Amino acid sequence: MDFLSQVNNIKEQVDFSESFRRDNCRLILIAGMGGSGVSGRIFSELCPKLHITVVDSYKLPDYVDESYFIICVSYSGNTEETISVANMAHERGLRVHAITTGGKLKSIADEVVEIPAGLQPRQALGYLLMPLINTFMPIGSAERNNIKNSLELVKVEDVKKLSEEIASSGKIPYVVSWEPYASISYRTKTQFNENSKLSAINHVLSEQNHNELVPLSMNKNMKNSFFFISIDGDSNSRSRNRMDIMEKNAGLNFHHITAKGDSYLARYFYLIHFIDLLTYYTGISLKYDPEDVGVLESLKKELANIR
User: Which of the two ends of the chain, N or C, has the fewest CB atoms closer than 10 A to its terminal CB?
Assistant: First the structure.
């Protein structure tokens, strides 16, 4: 499957219906790295009724005990940090659930949701998210249709136009978001990193105002280094007011991306798809292969030889 087909495959991923056998718990720990681990960040925002801890390291926090529902997410099933967390959980006698295509994680987990292989992990976000949604905030066919309808609202020509502006600017993408889409700024950063081969910066309002507003307002050279993008959140929030004041007083010109769809989940998936296409076409405009992450694969191989 070529990479653009992988990007568009999210429309099929929404129908993935597998889930875990849910315990009666409110404490969730999701461990994962990179394109797999971002599913935990996003799900923690989608499901605020649960206390969700996201781990992106080798270590299971000391406080985690049998009261936690532990989910290890690794598309390949061989991510060493995630395997380390799973092993630490077993050492404490804790049950491990896994979302993976296979690998070592499949062989050591107590319960596995196996997802389709053949994609880059960062383009399997639907497969990684849906088992979490199906387990902890189950949805019916009507909501799945809402999500798929929202994906069709992404206008590819508008996306291409913006991607060409970013590529031709020679600037670093600077992405800001706020609730209820705060995690999308991080997803946007990482997709620029891997799909577009660009360094990028992400921030969340209102915390960004308490730090980064100073150099952006007072250091012209700094301000001129960035291509500003806003993933617009709640239009009635104080953060919306902050964005308006920041643009006016600091003289910043943000390109605003606004979610579309008939439900919160639908709007979130709209943004995921918009950003995936945007970063894909930015990479194409810069004459990079959006799929190529060979340097990361080389790093993993070298690490695997160190014991």
Answer: C
